[in-house]
């Protein structure tokens, strides 16, 4: 005789709820009826290994429209710690009347391998038919969420079209009172100053520097950056308008600046933008000896920068943070380009004629190009050192990029880190028939 199959036990929790406390004091109320039906259903499934847990989950006098119910919270907590395998309810609406909440609960059930059964509706998520019914309900829940989202979006669009403030980061210059923007006169004065300063200074970088030295901060107590200033200068809220998806509507809040102030700032932004792009493109094409090579001791990159005073251009190498946030953002200052480049050129010229460098280059060339003689390597390098000042600036920059890995500004001077492969590559370029021959011809013609 075959032994009966052993079915693993499955722990079942009965959840009960009524929406009001009417008749809860009677000896047998709807909570009792739900609980009795749930336990009877569990007992009928004993052959499947169903057993009731010792604790029941009863929410008497709580609405099913939300999840703020003590017994439900306790049930969800016990599910997450693995105390329950099956949830039994009298009807689905006892668990939740909100399809969106129900969908979130089912997600939790699935993650913890918990099934769900409704006594009077023949829904059991452990069966294929039960899962089908749940999927139908979840589809309606998804539909409800999408319809709700569309309604919210439509309401926001309609409200903004009427000029209403619909929340978000509160702009400097305004406070919120009764869900309306009202002018904060102290902050509004700063907003007007920012628009005026931009017209006067024509530089967000100078404004950031000035505000940092004065301790002027944003609404949230942070230092101003160029990005913060430009964002304010482009915020049409200050014109008394509300913007939605690129469209501007007359707002229900008062303006802080006038249309004339707005137009003056944006005429300057448009003009300066064109000029800055033209100037930047032109300067990017200019040869700069140490572009991308110069660093501070702590690794901050220095980039070429320019100022014009009395029609004379002054060149600098400036910490990259200056370009993004202003001079206050870096502990390092700008350095004049001329003296630094002169020091680097001095080291390049010295290395081209230094015996130990030349010997090292010749040793490497001899291994890779045995057909070349020592004179074909040494003499062109020395001639190049002599002729460096006569080279075109673009050629000087190319050779510097070939030979140098990086230049670090150190206390009292600078340190040049050479590219190991740069010197053999240079020697190959100086071989007869290449740049070396051209240099010899140029030297002969001088």
In a few lines, what is going on in this structure?
Helices cover 50% and strands 17% of the residues.
Q: Which keywords apply here?
A:
6-stranded mixed sheet, 16 helices, DNA strand exchange activity, alpha/beta, Hect, E3 ligase catalytic domain fold, Rossmann fold, elongated, 446 residues, 3-stranded mixed sheet, DNA_bind_recombinase_dom
> Which of globular, elongated, flat, extended, rod-shaped describes the shape?
elongated
Task: Identify the quaternary structure here.
Answer: single chain
Structural class: alpha/beta
What's the total number of strands?
16
Strand content: 15-25%
Mean pLDDT: 81
- The CA-CA distance between the termini, in Å, is 116 Å
Rg (CA only): 39 Å
Tally of individual domains: 3
What is the makeup of the main sheet? Answer: 6 strands, mixed
Number of helices: 16
Poorly predicted regions are: none
Q: Tell me roughly what share of residues is in helical segments.
A: 40-55%
GO molecular function: DNA binding; DNA strand exchange activity
Domain Recombinase: 171-275
Organism: Thauera humireducens
Domain Resolvase/invertase-type recombinase catalytic: 11-163
